[in-house]
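Technical note accompanying the year-one report. For the benefit of new consortium partners, we illustrate the data format agreed upon in the data management plan: each record pairs a sequence with a structure-token string. No post-processing was applied to the example shown here.
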Amino acid sequence: MTSADMALPPQDDRTLPAIVLQDVDRRPLEQVLAELQALVEQHGHVIVVCSQVLPASVERRLHTVRALLETDRIALFRPSLPPLGLAVLARQLRQLASCDLSPGVLASAGRLLTHYIHAGALLGSVARLDHVPVGLKSHARSWMPGSQFGVVAHPVPQLVRIGPDAALDGPEFGTWLLVAKGQLAPDWVTGTLAPSWKVQGLREMPLPAESPGWWGTGKLTEFCAYLPDLSVLYQLVTSVRQSTCHWCGIDVIGDRCVFCSATPPEYDTGRDRTPAARRGPALGHRRERRALTG
């Protein structure tokens, strides 16, 4: 993790501790380089989970370090999740790290598990909300004193103005709800949303420092519904077909290697029906890929 307040406490006795990479864009390059090199030597592979609202300088520094180390054993993972959802996902990966999963499968599991995270917030304003579509009417109502909005950013964007009949579609499977209170009372989340989503348990934590920037306001309470049980997470991951990355040879799930970013090679399957004007470069690219993998 790149933020200490997003390193959630362990979910169970097997959850591995989080390692926080502090101020990677502010410390001397040599320090960050030595820190990541030590982590790779100690653990073999490193998965860095970071938020999309972090300064671009953080991502540039991480890519620089990875390039200087000349290694495919560092994966940089930046899913499109709000801060609280990202913190939950990082903890799920820490849970799975205690299992018999290869590094490539574990890193690939991050993309799979995002589909089972329902992340949203209760907001006092949506005037500066960029991550969820906001209609003109909702935008105008956000300037009215006392207005509140229920928002789900992931997996499917939703936005409702809080009222007697306000409701948000939730997960169709059993989850726990994690709530992070900001400058807005969480009564609607804990008293209305949680029962409507039929959550099996509820926990609270401090609001991540990145949340106001992500949601566009400090008047919020953030929430996230998630799967807490390691056995369920493990079953989800191991039920997906695994393959071997044709470039770095690591086992993965999905169509893209998280460590080297390679995608499966394209092969000609029968007659190429592409118009002649476009066929040459495409076929040449396929031949080049076959040469690299052969």
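Partners are asked to follow this layout when depositing records. DSSP finds nine helices and ten strands in the chain.
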